[in-house]
Write a structure and sequence with these properties.
Blueprint (H helix, E strand, L loop, with lengths): L1 H10 L8 E4 L12 E4 L20 H8 L21 E8 L20 E8 L2 H9 L3 E5 L6
Antiparallel strand pairs: 1-2, 3-4, 4-5
C-alpha cells in the first residue's frame, strides 16, 4: 500500500516536492524503538541514510511545521535540532500491572483495566542504554487513575 502511494505521488509529479514522513508508534517490549523515515522536499536518495541522532516522536509535529518553512519553536524541537551521538535524557513509559497497587477502572467504566501503573524509565543515551534500563528494571512506578486497556 505504501509503495502504491509513493508511486502515485511520482505519477502525479509531486514526489520530488513532497516531504514524506513514515513512522510508527512503538516497537515491542524487548526493542521499543520507533520508526522515523523522512524524505524531504527536493531530496532524493538511492539508498537509506541512517543516523543515531536521539530523536523521538515528540519531534514529529515540530518537524512537520519546520518542513512548511514556518517557525516551529512553540511546538518543541525538530529532528534537525539533534546530531549523531548526542547524549540526551529520554523518558519511556510502559503500562504494566502491579499487584501491590489497587486496580483502576477501565476507561469505559465497565470493568477494571488490565494495567494499573506506568513504569517510567529515565535514561540517557541510545537504544542500548534503553534496553539496559529495561533489562535491569531501572524504573520508577507511577500509579494510574484509570486504564485504557
Amino acid at each position: 500500500m505504501l509503495e502504491a502511494y509513493l508511486n502515485e505521488l511520482k505519477t502525479l509529479g509531486v514526489y520530488d516536492n513532497s516531504t514524506i514522513i513514515i513512522t510508527s508508534d512503538h516497537g515491542d517490549i524487548e526493542y521499543p524503538q520507533i520508526i522515523f523515515f523522512i524524505k524531504e522536499k527536493q531530496e532524493s536518495h538511492k539508498s537509506l541514510n541512517g543516523t543515531n541522532a536521539p530523536i523521538t516522536l515528540d519531534e514529529l509535529v515540530p518537524t512537520i511545521v519546520q518542513s512548511l518553512d514556518k517557525d516551529y519553536s512553540e511546538f518543541g524541537y525538530s529532528i534537525h535540532d539533534f546530531y549523531p551521538d548526542q547524549q540526551r535524557e529520554r523518558l519511556l513509559y510502559i503500562r504494566d500491572y502491579d499487584a501491590s497497587y489497587p486496580d483502576v477502572p477501565r476507561y469505559d467504566g465497565i470493568s477494571s483495566g488490565g494495567s494499573n501503573v506506568y513504569h517510567l524509565y529515565n535514561y540517557t543515551g541510545n537504544i542500548d542504554d534503553q534496553i539496559n534500563a529495561l533489562q535491569n528494571y531501572q524504573y520508577t512506578t507511577i500509579p494510574m487513575v484509570d486504564s485504557y486497556f
